[in-house]
Each structure stands twice: as C-alpha cells, then as structure tokens.
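Fold this: TAP42-like protein
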Amino acid sequence: MDLNNASLGELFTSGQSILSELEDTTLASIDPEYQAKVHDALLRLERAQDLVHQLAIFSSNELVDDMNPNDLRFLLIPVYLGDLTLRVTDRNKSRRHILEAAKNHFNTYMNACEEHQLLSGADLDAYKRSVDTSNSNSRSLPPAQQRQQKIEMFKREKATENRIRELRERLNVDENEDKDDIERDWVLALVQLHILKALQHLHSIDQELVMVKEMEAMSHDRQRMLSSAGRSDEQTARTDIRPSTWGRDKPLLSKEGRPLQPFVITNKRQALKDQVFRPGWSLPTMSIDDYLAQEEARGNIIRGGGEPPSEEKKEIDDNDYEAQDAETMRQRDWDEFVEANPKGWGNRGNKG
C-alpha cells in the first residue's frame, strides 16, 4: 500500500487489523517478523494521525453526539500508537525513549477523551492522580484502596469486552436495525475499553521509568568508576562515588515516610554478604593439636600425678583364714548397705 496516496479510513483499518494480529500471534516480541509488523502498523497509524491533524476532524468544543460515527473511531489512533510503541524492541533506541514516546501517546488519547467528555468521574480522578504521581506531587492511595480499584477496573474491562463482542455480532448479523447507532455504540465501547487500558499502561510506564532511570544512573556511575585512576578496589570505588544528578533535587522520603525515589542501602554491605554466603555452622579455627598445645602453654594441662592404675584383685589363699573372715565381713557389710539403701533412694528431687 502506498501510504501517501491511501485514504484515512484505509490507513486506520489496516493499522487496526495489524494490531489485532499482533495480539493473537504466537511470535515472540523479538522476532524480526513481529517487529516488521509493528513498524508497518506504526507507519500507517502515524500517517493517519497526520491526516487527522491536517483535516482538523476533531474540535476541542465538539461533543461526542455531534461527531460523525465514521470519524469517531479515529479517536483511537493515539492509544493504538502507544500500544504499538511499547511493543518496539529496537536496540538503537533506549528503553527510556520508547517508554516516554508511548506515554505521550497515551496522554494525548486521555486528553482528547477528556476534551470530548468521554471520561467518567472515576476515570478522570484516576488519570489526574496518575499525572500528579508521575510528578511526585500527590499521595498514593492506601494498598487496600488500590487493590479494590484494580478489581473494579478489571470487572469493568471484562464487561466492556463482552459488550463489544455483542455489538460486533449485531453489526454482522442484524440487517433491520440501524447500523449507524450500533456502530456508534460499538466505537464508544472501544473508546471506554482503551481508556481503562491506557490508565493501566500509564501506571506501568511510570513504574518502569523509575527503574530505567536508576539503571541509567548506575551505568553512568560504573563508567565513571572504571575511568577513574588509582582505584584498586571496585567495591570501594562504587560506594565512594556520588550518585548521579537525577533525583538530587527531590527528597528521598515524603512527610508520611513513603519513598519518593529508589535508593540502595550500602552500609555494611560486605559484612552482610559474608554473613549470608557462608555455612550454617561455625567452622573450626585451629586443629585439636594446636588447641592442646595452647592449653598446655597456658598451664591448663597437668602432667603426672594422680592415682596409679589399680592392680588386679588377688585371690585369697584357702589356708589364710583371717583373710577369708575379713572378706566375708566386707561382703556382709556391703549387703547390709545395699539393703538399707535401694537403688535410686537418694535421688528424690524430681519424684515429689
């Protein structure tokens, strides 16, 4: 297709069709064929966006009811461009550049919907909060409220998708109904669906931009560290270098204690690392021979002395009556002692 000679409707329809194929394809996002389709759809929709501006199809003071149903669908061009931009994986473009370009497309779409009064009160509040949060000027919602908001948006998105499917079937089947009204409702449902998706994309982009900026700052610091002379320890050099200029003009924490920018705790990092990456038991610091030698040097080991080993009991001569009587008396005394003191008799501490 010659993009310069194609009509606005052809450009929009072909770009929308390619985007639908990308959503259902099994190709990986880094596949050359996938990226070729992404760039093709971008070229078609960018050309369509230029024609929309040249023809001045939309006016800021124009309401939805006053728009032509065939022109109403062109409101979706910016959100389609934002979706396609996020799918780009060009190595020649930084991720930060891609995210910021997609964010501009989504903001253009949301501003157009606001001008034409297509945003509900809840969606408008969510969009304003997203803009303020990206500028670090507003408080984030409590976690419970954020979770409830996500659940409600998910339910609305599913209900809108079901309505779009129902209206599409009516357009393809019913012949007696007014096609213009059904098509208008179908386009408006698409607009509402992509409002919800644009809010989700803006939230995800803001979160990813924080990580991308931090990674760029770390990469810049790493280059400065490698180029500096006279530094032998890389870990020491990394902690000595000041962080990048990004975020220095902003406070680290809000008044409520909420982090406003990412930070890394570097104090005692090596000590904590040594405590984690080690065996779970205490390792010996010396051998047994070294320990005994140390104890002997301290005077804790006594050599010599003590009782000599007992000699084997000599048998009593049968003719030595005195020795036999003494042995008999000794055994009687022992029997009397055992009878008077049964086993365990003296250990009564734990028996009540």
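Residues 20 and 100 are 23 Å apart (CA to CA). The chain has a mean pLDDT of 80.
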